[in-house]
Amino acid sequence: MPGSEQRPLEILQERMGENVQIKPGHLGKASIQAKPELIRQIMQTILQGEPSAAISAITGLDLGDNIGIMYHTRLREALITVIVEVAKTKPIIQSITDLIPGANFHERELTDLFGVTVEGHPNPGRLVLPEDWPIDLYPLRKDAKLDNIPKSPPPQEKNASEEPETDGKLVNIIIGPQHPALLEPEKFSVKVDGEIVRKVEPRIGYVHRGVEKAAEQRTYLQDVYLIERICGICNSCHATCFVEAVEKILGTEVPSRGKYLRTIILELNRLHSHLLLLGHAGLEIGYETLFQYMWRDREPIMDLTEMLTGNRVVSSSIAVGGVRRDIKDTDIERIKAELAKLAKKMPFYQNLFDNEPTLKMRTRGVGKLSREDATKLCVVGPVARASGVKFDIRKDEPYEAYGEIPFKLITREEGDTYARLMVRLAEVTESINIITYALDHLPTGPYRTRVPRTVPKGEAVNRVEAPRGELLHYVRGNGTAFPERVKVRTPTFANIPAFLKTAIGGSIADVPANFVSLDPCFSCTDR
Amino acid sequence: MSIAKAVTWARLKSPWVLHFNSGACNGCDIEVVALLTPRYDVERFGIKLEPSPRHADVLLTTGCVTKQCAERLKRIYDQMPQPKFAVAIGACACSGGVFKGNYTVEGGVDKIIPVNAYIPGCPPKPEAIIDGVVKLLNSLKEAKPSAR
Fold it and tell me: Do B33 and A183 touch (CB under 8 A)?
């Protein structure tokens, strides 16, 4: 329903009158500029009218004397942005976490990186920065002095001293930062009562590399390489999301062959990511044969990626204005043949997940996430789709060649670990179909256009459906070869609250299976 | 065969490795995991991925070493029994790579612990990682491990 987001905006305009300025077509479908005091009122109005509305990201922005705060809000298929500004001398904003629980991490990140005090936040504290980070140093502010950072003593471990509901019965189990079940360094404190999980406290930020700040210090050309390395698994999605945002500011139209080639690369990315996850899930639930089989079948995808782009993993093939190199005719036949082989194996895996007793016991009914909770926690991607939320950027806001390629939107109703894995398994088949269709209908002509190195003043927000879900990039240009601000909201960042919710009440033994079904990627989360 | 010779033989034929991600982008990590899967299958060299530092001989480190991970990396290295070896996998682990100079990045594993072998690449191909680890093993035949 295109234009269906208009109604809530009309209601907002009616109620708030002169207090809000609605600018259609700016930062998504529309932007709403308002005073910071009104933020709760505005969010309340939007959320009341739309039960499916959710927060995609909260972006901070250093504007000199002020700090701009942008609430990127999903309204049905569209994205709208609520913009407020607070003074740098008194950066205080009201929390909206009680209105929409999915805003929790976004607000904590805002406090960490911009020093905006969020009043009324249920659990403020460090999110991505180290514990011994200086208290009054906010790295994403333009005036932050980041040479020779002094170490301040870490604050008293709040969690250790408080523990109000311990009453001697709960046992604290620490998972991570180095743990065989996690390939990445993150820490989860799981409080268990016997076998039952009562509370999960995450400590993320071990992989925080300051990519957003680094992007401001590099040119757009260099940024493509940097931003790809936010995540080695969904690297092409990050690159595509960034270059599309830059192309929006530049007003560049990518040649249609370039669009199709990008689609093929993105879907190869999704294929390898989904197969990786399905194998990893096998490893986590103690079914190692599945892990070995899946990774065996994933290797041809890596070969195809290498053939098409020149590298197995980080492909660096997406460039501003198109793709870096063309596809050869002989490659087309080989990709089709390899994908046909993979497609033949899919019924075997489907049968395995449906009938194998180990997989049934470890995945069915584990970590149930209801549709209401999925919306409230603002989860994205296969996690949302497994809970029955019809949300896929490829359908809602088609980018590249997705608008011209027929494919099915996979959803399931169960909302458990099994459903989350099955959504991905079905998407593997869809991805194979998308690539085959794209190869059959590959347009002729150029695959790249020339673009200037300097990007004019302007801003753009762009979304891409990465293997893990909605990926959002915000880019602001200032007329030079360096961006003013790059914001990245990754899908796992939005999905972690789902784990914190679904793990509670379950068995400690189900934690790995439940957790891995989100396809967590912390290098994405922390940036 | 002397005892020393027997120990060296045993060490060469069954190196247990521990993988630690010190802030990598996952690119190197998925290639390290790929080593265990049917196509590359490093178990044919006796290499086994070991979850506990206390049982490991070789520490495979990926990533640019973030400030939060640095202390953890040191602790894990200290927990490993002697003799121990460290391998830096990927451009980030070798020097900080694309993230060098960022505000939370130490840049390079060798700033925190001594490194015996560097495997460059972004990410290195699984073949390159196997080559690096086997080279490290071969070097053990002659040289004594760097005692600490």
Answer: yes
Q: Which residues of A touch B103 (CB under 8 A)?
A: 139, 146, 149, 210, 213
**Do A115 and A217 share a structural domain?**
no
SS3 state of residue A409? coil
Contacts of A523 in chain B (CB under 8 A): 23-26
Nearest to B72 among A185, A214, A230 (CB): A185
Structural domain contains residue A167: no
Q: Domain B17-142 falls in which CATH fold?
A: Rossmann fold (3.40.50)
Domain housing A475:
211-519
pTM of this structure:
0.87
Q: Is residue A489 classed as helix, strand or coil in its secondary structure?
A: strand
**A231 and A112 in a common domain:** no
Separation CA A76–CA A42 (nearest Å): 17
CB contact under 8 A, B24 and A231: no
Q: Which residue has the tokens 């092409």?
A: A236
Which chain B residues are within 8 Å of A206, Cβ to Cβ? 23, 66, 68-69, 72
> Coil, strand or helix: which one is A94?
strand
B 40-59: CB under 8 A from A: 51, 53
For chain B, the structural domain boundaries read 17-142
Q: How many domains does chain A have?
A: 2
Q: Are A452 and A479 in contact (CB under 8 A)?
A: no
pLDDT tens track, chain A, 527 positions: 445 556 777 777 777 777 777 777 787 777 888 888 888 888 888 777 777 788 888 888 888 888 888 888 888 778 888 888 888 888 888 888 888 888 888 888 888 888 888 888 888 777 888 877 887 888 888 887 777 777 766 555 554 444 445 556 788 887 777 776 667 777 788 888 888 888 888 888 888 888 888 888 888 888 899 998 888 888 899 999 999 999 988 888 889 899 999 999 999 999 999 999 898 888 888 888 888 999 999 999 999 999 888 888 888 888 888 888 888 888 898 999 999 999 999 999 999 888 888 888 888 888 888 888 888 888 888 988 888 888 888 888 888 888 888 888 888 888 888 999 999 999 999 999 999 999 998 888 888 888 888 888 888 889 898 898 889 999 988 888 889 889 998 888 888 888 888 888 888 888 888 888 888 888 888 88
Are A232 and B102 in contact (CB < 8 Å)? Answer: no
Distance CA A27, CA A75 (A): 13
Residues A494 and A347 in one domain: yes
- Domain end call among A90, A119, A148: A119
Q: Give the ipTM.
A: 0.84
